[in-house]
Design a protein that fits this description.
The structure is a single chain. This protein has helices at 35-41, 77-80, 98-105; strands at residues 21-27, 51-56, 62-63, 67-71, 75-76, 85-86, 91-95, 111-112, 127-130. The protein is an alpha+beta fold and 137 residues long.
């Protein structure tokens, strides 16, 4: 008996374990937009310049599929990210507004916080989890 055609992608990337990814930069409560930024971007607020940076601190190429933030910002790598893997020592930036972050910092973000979520200016816990429930951060 024959089955239907199946496609599989082999990349050599592994799912991240605890301690494989680190939040290496967290930019919250930014300064208000400058007149130049308002002219270039239109109606933006200070919250549009928020971002967080994740770094692969392991020796393995990591698959970001099946990762999501369960607290803090709303972001699911399987749905919201344009990058699915990260090399050893590599970084990925997630932003509140990709155009605003690029305008101010020259950083190309790989995804946008979903559903208008923002980083809290008064502090909050961020939880990065795999789909099997393992907490990474």
């Amino acid at each position: 008996a024959w089955s239907a055609l199946t496609e599989v992608r082999f990349s050599g990337a592994v799912p991240p374990g605890a301690g494989y990814l680190a939040i290496t930069e967290l930019y919250y409560h930014p300064a208000p937009p400058t007149p130049t930024e308002l002219g270039d971007l239109g109606a933006v607020t200070d919250d549009d310049f928020e971002f967080l940076e994740l770094t692969n601190v392991s020796a393995h190429r990591l698959s970001l599929d099946n990762l999501r933030f369960a607290a803090g910002v709303d972001f699911d790598f399987s749905v919201d990210a344009t990058i699915r893997e990260i090399a050893p020592g590599g970084t990925i930036v997630l932003a509140s507004n990709t155009a605003a972050v690029f305008e101010r910092f020259g950083i190309a973000a790989a995804g946008v916080f979903a559903h208008g979520t923002r980083l809290s200016n008064s502090g909050e816990q961020l939880k990065l989890v795999r789909s099997d429930g393992l907490h990474l951060q």
